[in-house]
Every structure is written in structure tokens, then in C-alpha cells.
Amino acid sequence: MRIPIIAGNWKMNNTISESLELVEAIKTSKLDEKVEKVVAVPFTSLMEVKKSLEGTDIKLAAQNMHWEEKGAFTGEVSPLMLKEIGVDYCIIGHSERRQYFNETDESVNKKVKSALTHGIKPIICVGETLEEREEGKEEEVVKEQLLKALEGIEKEDIENIVIAYEPVWAIGTGKTASSEDANHMCGFIRRIIGEKYGEDTKDTIRIQYGGSVKPNNIKELMDKVEIDGALVGGASLIAEDFVKLINY
Ligand code: PGA
To answer: What's the pLDDT at 173?
Structure first.
């Protein structure tokens, strides 16, 4: 049985006070206990949100990290810093980081390894652009991103990894992949994991869909056999909507 995982990616939204307001509204709502809940908040809010989440079952995530523990990397945040705060997860390789901040499959791989070494669970994002989909290359692109992200990762580490299939053309655009397409691609990812790590791993790895997930489409997506959760941007900024997603 794979535990469903609904994660909110706040992106570059919410000051510390705004973060506390949002998290307060979420944690005081009635939330499905059978669903794993994660909020990925800006670095500046991590510490205060962590304190606010104490005594709840809501997990905390960062949205990025450097792979080195320390050093001359101006503006970067290290896994040791995140670990001390008590971060559970870290989103790695989000398409916005690949697009705007030069994130590559190589840096994604280094970050994944480093996160695992430091006991932080990576949520690895993969997904094709509109152009790649129109050329029929979505499987090829996703396979390459996935295998490169997982290069050198041992089978026993896979249980600490979540994969998020996020087609770039569906992020923040209001265009959701059809639940069939999303299911197909999550199944494709699962097959690749199975080929690399074996049948048992294939059955246990959790795969999220992300891209314009909203209260009105979550149920249809989550009903699909291959989809174990959602990585949600826009709708995670509105407490009422995020609560609806958790309680899909
Ligand atoms: P969206 O973002 O839900 O606003 O489309 C998803 C994501 O980028 O993780």
C-alpha cells in the first residue's frame, strides 16, 4: 500500500508572517490522517513554520538545496542547514529551477545524493516541455531525466525518494494533463524504476503528478492507479483549497 502524498509548493510566495498565517489555517482544519501532507516553504520561513508544525503530522520541505555541506557558494543553502531546522523533504530539480536557474540533470543528481546522505527525502521533479510533447518525445525526455537523477542511487535509498511527474506545459497554466495522460506517464516512470531496481521497488515508489492540480480535478487524478499524490503550486497558497486537496 502506497501512502498518498499531497505536497504544497509555495514557490517564492509568503513572508514569514504570511507563511504562519497560511500554515495556521491548514493545521487547524480537519485533515485526512491517511494522507501524508507536506508544505514546501521558502527558506526564510522554514524555521518558523517548523515550530508552528510541531505536534502535527504535516511534514516540512525545502524547495531547493546545494549539494555541498558548506563553502564559498554565495547565496546557497546547504543540507546541514536544512537538517538542523528539521526539514523532512526537499524538492529537487523543479522545472522552474531547470528553466531559470541553470539546474541540470548532473546538479539534480548531486543534490539527490547529498539529500539522501543527510537524511532529507528528495522529491525529484521530471517532465517534458510543450515542444517536446508535441514532438512525441515525452517518454524519452522523462526517462533521461529520471535515469540521470538516479545515477549511483542504491535500491535501499529508493524508499526515501518521491518522484513528481510535472509536465512543464501544465505548470501554472491552468492546463492539467488529462488524468489518462498523467496516469500513463506515472506508469511509465514506475516501469523504468522497476527495470532499474526490481519489481518490489516498482510497487513501493511513490509518484506524484503536478501541474494545475485543483480541488475540482484532484479526485479524478488520485483515482488513477499509478498516481500516488500531487505536487501543487497555486492551489496550495489558499488554505481552503489545499485542505480540499488533502481531503480529496
Ligand atoms: P501549479 O504548480 O500547481 O501552480 O501548476 C505545480 C508545481 O510547479 O509544482
So the answer is: 84
Q: How far is CA 97 from CA 107, 114, 175, in A?
A: 11, 17, 20
pTM recorded for the entire structure:
0.97
Q: At residue 40, what is the residue type?
A: A
Go through the chain and tell me how many residues it has. Answer: 248
Dist. CA 175 → ligand 1 center (Å): 10
194 phi and psi angles, rounded to 5 deg: -60, -45
pLDDT, tens digit, for every residue of 69-106?
Answer: 999 999 999 999 999 999 999 999 999 999 999 999 99
CB atoms within 10 A of CB 194: 15
Per-residue pLDDT tens digits for 165-217: 999 999 888 888 899 999 999 999 999 999 999 999 999 999 999 999 999 99
- In whole angstroms, give the CA distance from residue 203 to residue 215: 27
- For the chain, list the domains and their CATH numbers: 5-246 (3.20.20.70)
CA distances from 28 to 52, 57, 97 (A): 11, 12, 32
Ligand 1 pocket test target in 213, 214, 236, 242 with most atoms within 8 Å of CB? 213
Q: Which residues are catalytic?
A: 94, 166
The CA distance from 127 to 97, in Å, is 13
- Measure the CA angle with vertex 208, ends 203 and 211; round to 5°: 155
Q: Is 9 in the pocket of ligand 1 (CB under 6 A)?
A: yes
Q: Which amino acid is at 246?
A: I
Quick check: 79 and 113 in contact, CB under 8 A? Answer: no
Grid coordinates standing for 91?
524538492
Is residue 36 within 8 A of residue 6, CB to CB? The reply is yes
